[in-house]
Specification:
Organism: Desulfobacter latus
Shape: elongated
Distance between the termini: 53 Å
Structural class: alpha+beta
Order of helices and strands: EHHEHHEEHEEHEHEHEHEEEEEEEEEH
Number of helices: 10
Mean pLDDT: 87
Radius of gyration: 24 Å
Helix content: 25-40%
Family: Belongs to the TRAFAC class translation factor GTPase superfamily. Classic translation factor GTPase family. IF-2 subfamily.
Number of strands: 18
Subcellular location: Cytoplasm
Protein name: Translation initiation factor IF-2
Bound molecules: guanosine-5'-diphosphate, magnesium ion
C-alpha cells in the first residue's frame, strides 16, 4: 500500500514525467503519468536517476490518501455522528451542551462526570451514540475547516424561541452550507412566556431551512435547556439525520483523525484531544500529528479514565507528542517511531522551505520597493 503517483515522483526528482515513463519502459514496466507506482519500482527507477527514495515520504503519501471508498466495504461499520452546536450568542449553546453532558448515560465508570477534553460522547436513551464537540462557536468551526479538517457531520442550530433569527444564526447557517453539513434546528427556551416556534420556522424558511412539517426536509425540535424538555427527542432526531448520512468507518485499521484542542501541560508535556475518524488508535501507537511525532504514552477518555484504544468518532486526550499541534491538524498512526520521526522531520523541512520562500519573496519585494 506504499505508493506514489508517477507524476508526483517525477516532480519531486525534478525530471520530466516522460523521461521517467521512458526509463520505466526500458525496465520493462509500462506506466502512464497518472499511474501510481509502488515503493520498490519507484526505488529502482529513482536509482536510475541517482536518487534514493525515502520510505517515510512514501508512507506519508499512502497515509494521507486515506480514501475510505477504496476500502473493503464489508469492513465498514456505522459510527456515531460528530455534532457541533452553533447559534446566536445567548440563544443557549453552552446550556444545551451542559444539559446533554449531564444526561450522559454511563457504562458504570467514573460516576458519569465528564471531564472537559473538548469533546464528549453520549449514549442516548435508545442506546445510540453521539459525539459532541464542546467548543461551540463559529470561529473553531471555520478554523478547523480552513485547515481542511472536516470534523463535523451535523450542526445543531440553536435558535431562542423568544428571540428569533439573528445575525449569528445566519452566519451559522452559512458555515453549515459552505461545509455541506446538514442542520438540525433546536428551537430553545420553549419554557419562556414569549416563545413563538412558528416564527422561528417562518424566519428560517427564508434561509432555505424548511421544516418537515411544512414540506421541507429540515428537522426542527422544540427544546428547553432549562427544563430539559425535548432534549431526548433532539438526540434521537440527530441520530435519524445521521442515518441518512450513512456515516461509516473501518475500525480495523491504523487510526487517523483530527486535533480538536491542544495545550502544553507542565507535567505531561504536549496534550491534545483528538477525534478518531478512521481506524482504532491504540496505546503505544507511533503517530504523526501536524508537524510533530511521538507515540501514545497515555489516552484519557471524556470521563477521565485511561483507555487502551479509541475507535471511530471517539474523542480522547492523548499524551506523548513531542510538540503541541494545532486544532484542526490531522493525526495518523504509523508503523514505527522511526517512521513517525522521519515523516515529521520531512514536514518540518517542507514547512521551513515554505517559510524561507515567503521570506525571500518579501525580501525581493522590499528590494524592488527600495529601487
Ligand atoms: P450561549 O451564548 O449560546 O452559549 O447561551 P447560554 O447557554 O450561555 O445561555 C444564555 C442565557 O440563556 C443564560 O442565562 C441561560 O441560563 C439562558 N437559557 C439557556 N437556555 C435556556 C432555556 O431553555 N430557557 C430559559 N428560560 N433560559 C435559557
Ligand atoms: Mg456560550
Amino acid at each position: 500500500d506504499e505508493a506514489i503517483e508517477l507524476a508526483e515522483l517525477a516532480k519531486r526528482m525534478g525530471i520530466k514525467a516522460n523521461e521517467m515513463i521512458a526509463k520505466l519502459m526500458g525496465m520493462g514496466v509500462m506506466a502512464t503519468v497518472n499511474q501510481t507506482i509502488d515503493y520498490d519500482t519507484a526505488s529502482l527507477v529513482a536509482a536510475e536517476f541517482d536518487f534514493e527514495v525515502e520510505k517515510a515520504s512514501f508512507e506519508e503519501e499512502a497515509l494521507l490518501n486515506v480514501v475510505p471508498e477504496e476500502e473493503d466495504k464489508s469492513a465498514l461499520e456505522t459510527c456515531p455522528p460528530v455534532v457541533t452546536i452553533m447559534g446566536h450568542v445567548d440563544h443557549g449553546k453552552t446550556s444545551l451542551l451542559d444539559v446533554i453532558r449531564k444526561s450522559k448515560i454511563t457504562s458504570g465508570e467514573a460516576g458519569g462526570i465528564t471531564q472537559h477534553i473538548g469533546a464528549y460522547n453520549v449514549e442516548t436513551a435508545n442506546g445510540g451514540r453521539i459525539t459532541f464537540l464542546d467548543t461551540p462557536g463559529h470561529a473553531a468551526f471555520t478554523a478547523m475547516r480552513s485547515r481542511g479538517a472536516q470534523v463535523t457531520d451535523i450542526v445543531i442550530l440553536v435558535v431562542a424561541a423568544d428571540d428569533g433569527v439573528m445575525p449569528q444564526t445566519v452566519e451559522a447557517i452559512n458555515h453549515a452550507k459552505a461545509a455541506g453539513v446538514p442542520v438540525v434546528v433546536a428551537v430553545n427556551k420553549m419554557d419562556k412566556a414569549g416563545a413563538d416556534p412558528d416564527r422561528i420556522m417562518r424566519e428560517l424558511a427564508e434561509h432555505d431551512l424548511l421544516a418537515e412539517d411544512w414540506g421541507g426536509n429540515v428537522i426542527f425540535v422544540k427544546v428547553s435547556a432549562k427544563s430539559g424538555e425535548g432534549i431526548d427527542e433532539l438526540l434521537e432526531m440527530v441520530l435519524l439525520q445521521a442515518e441518512v448520512l450513512e456515516l461509516r468507518a473501518n475500525a480495523d485499521r491504523k487510526a487517523m483523525g483530527y486535533v480538536v484542542e491542544s495545550r502544553l501541560d507542565i507535567g505531561r508535556g504536549a496534550v491534545a484531544t483528538v477525534l478518531v475518524k478512521q481506524g482504532t488508535l491504540k496505546d503505544g501507537d507511533p503517530i504523526v500529528c501536524g508537524l510533530h511525532s511521538g507515540h501514545i504514552r497515555a489516552m484519557i477518555d471524556d470521563s477521565g479514565n485511561r483507555v487502551e484504544s479509541a475507535g471511530p468518532s471517539t474523542p480522547v486526550e492523548i499524551v506523548g507528542l513531542a510538540g503541541v499541534p494545532d486544532a484542526g491538524d490531522e493525526f495518523v498512526a504509523v508503523a514505527s517511531d522511526k517512521d513517525a520521526k522521519q515523516i515529521a522531520a520531512h514536514r518540518m523541512q517542507k514547512q521551513r522551505a515554505k517559510e524561507l520562500a515567503k521570506k525571500s519573496r518579501a525580501n525581493l519585494q522590499k528590494m524592488f520597493e527600495n529601487l
